[in-house]
Amino acid sequence: MSKILISNRGNISGKNPIKENKVDYIEEAFILGFDVKIDIWAKKNSNNQVNLFLNDEEPVEEINLYWLFKNCGKLWLECKNIEALEFFDSMQFFNYFWLENNLTTITSKKFIWSERQPIKNSIAFQPENKEISQCLGFCSDYISNYNKTD
Asked: What is the pLDDT of residue 83?
């Protein structure tokens, strides 16, 4: 069975904090055939409309909803604040999740997402040096080290 290969923030062969969670970098990972897990924030503006942003620690790069819809089949959205979770909960198109202070969660598309391994039929997050033979897929900063038959 073919494994799901997910780049963490667009990283392919190691962390790159300057480029990760940026649209161009994420699209490079798409071109190489990977899905991508991104960190996403939502903030309401003065008109009470929601603006979306990418980054891990705080909202930085604004992202438009059209780009997200266009790529929703390849994106795994880690909601970084409650506003993002509530925003994506109102839409059925996206595969999103919340992971505050936890090592395991279930995404909106019913995938088990976990740093704890082995868990049968899960997505192994940062699986380096863990037992992963029963996983459905992997998400890593080093996703080029994995192949669809691992």
From this structure: 96
